[in-house]
Amino acid sequence: MRHSRLALAAVPIILTVTGCVTVAPGASPPASPAPTEAASSLPSPLATSAPSATPEPPTQSPSVTASAEPTASAALSATPVSAAPSADPVPSDSASAPSVPPVAPDSTLVFADSFDSDANGWGVVDVGFGSIEWFDGALAFAAESAQGSLQSTKPVPDGVAWEELGGSADFTPIEGSDTIMGLYCSPGDGTLIGGLVSVDGTWLVVAGTQDSVTVVDQGQVPEGALAVGQTSTVAFQCSGADDALSPMVRLAVGSEILATTEVPTEYASMPTFSTVGLWVEPVTPPMLVGVDEVRVVGRHVPRRETLGPPPTTAP
Known about the structure:
By secondary structure, the chain is mainly beta. The protein contains one helix and 18 strands.
């Protein structure tokens, strides 16, 4: 996000978040999952609300779901489930990259958004308990209450199913010293795997649905990598299940690779992905976060052993 876009701080935060908000252009909300008893699993949604009449691009028909409690923030203190680290070694030269890890040479640019106009294909919504809106060249996430997450999704062009999908986004937290933010991949049915980071220094690898996630791995972000008023590039890579291999998530902030985590198949087993999601969740409100410069790349790979470092910029 360019520094001139820090004017996002002028957006009035007048709405109260009472649950998870998921905005998916052209899609209906997923069926509510049954609650799970796992300590690190989170509640299913209790209500579904209709979107407001806020004008949107013709291609966007947001659907909104609400859950009764916070999702990722509730899991920060939970013990993650046992996650097997990937057998795929992180390339030794990735940490020496000048800015962010490079994409694999055979990656294909799926889409790139600089949010220079509101016709960008991401869902926006203003339903009285949270807001996601295009403002001054960025996608702005605002909340006054720490009772759920705000999510906006975008399907890949032409509905192509990718065995590997990843990329990056620039996040600028304007308010909210411990806001959780990140990206995820989905096959388009509401299930997901992804990586999240908290401004106060925790990273999470999650799996589940847009309404209920399980933390499968977590750790600490290097000091100074995230801060209020600072733009940080969060990078991710999702790899689908392949034969006996479970899905995998890679997560990075800037040039620092934080996680390369196998997701147990009892929490996710999708072989391909066709939707990318942005996740922003307040912990200590008020919260205001601008998201900009989203780039997504994909690869059709026969087996996941061939994966490179997390893709973060277009080839």
